[in-house]
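Okay, any thoughts on this one?
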Amino acid sequence: MSTLPPNRRRTSTAPSAEPLEITDDDTGSGLPLPAVEIDVAQELNAETEAQLSDERRAKRHALRERLQQIASSVSMVALVVGSLVGGRFVHRWAVSTPRFGAHEIELAGNTRSTREDVLNASEIHEGRNVLSIDARRAETRLRALPWVSSAHVTRRLPGSVRIELEERDAAALLSASGLYLVATDGSLIKRLAPGDPIDLPMISGIDRALFAQDPELAKEHVRDALALLSDLAGSSLAGRVRADEVHRDATGDLSMTLSDRGIYVWMGRGPYRAKMARLSAILGELERNHLVAAEIHLESDRHPERAAVRLQRGQ
């Protein structure tokens, strides 16, 4: 075994005192490789092992992060599923527990509609769970009641319900194959029944079938008659005469029967305010002469500015 010259010896910290000899086969000289080359090889080996260790640590770290992500996703899915299951359970409990049973049902605005009718239509009864009440559905059912024009239902925990109604006013009676109450907008309220208001003017000449065939046209015809009654109430005749009936002719002309002595007044077509002034003057003249008219025609095809009066018999 050859030894390094004294000037090329390297002190080694390894347990072995003798240096490792490596022969250079390429040169064929048989001389041992310098010790510095051995040191470089060892350092390269150490660097390679360090790089491999870093790569292993990076892979282990990436694996841990991936596993954490998977665990987090699984936890989130479990949380969502648990929330859905728990939410359904809570909802079923909330809409069925007697703790939220309706113990106070307040009604407002029901002048014509009875409490029984309102509760039956809304399907709201004492003891029913207030959270199980579909307020929008209840309002729709309430608007189907004859007198109700609008409805609003509110719920308050733990057990209160308030039902607010707006009811339509009956403006007149419609004679059309029976007697019906009509509202100010011209719509039918209901068929006249015991207990309903009857001290109202009558409207006739409008076919009941028209409300099914053309509801808007039928309501327009009713509104025309109501407009005539309104002009009468706003004229100087208010308080002196009252119309018992307004009749619509097939031509669209209107006439009315006054209640004091059954005077028939042909009004023709609107507007009617100016005609009311002429009617007031005619009735005043008849009273001054102690005469009573049977018919008064405020419009004629030949002389629209004139009025024709036919007196009652015996005058």
The first strand starts at residue 104 and ends at 108.
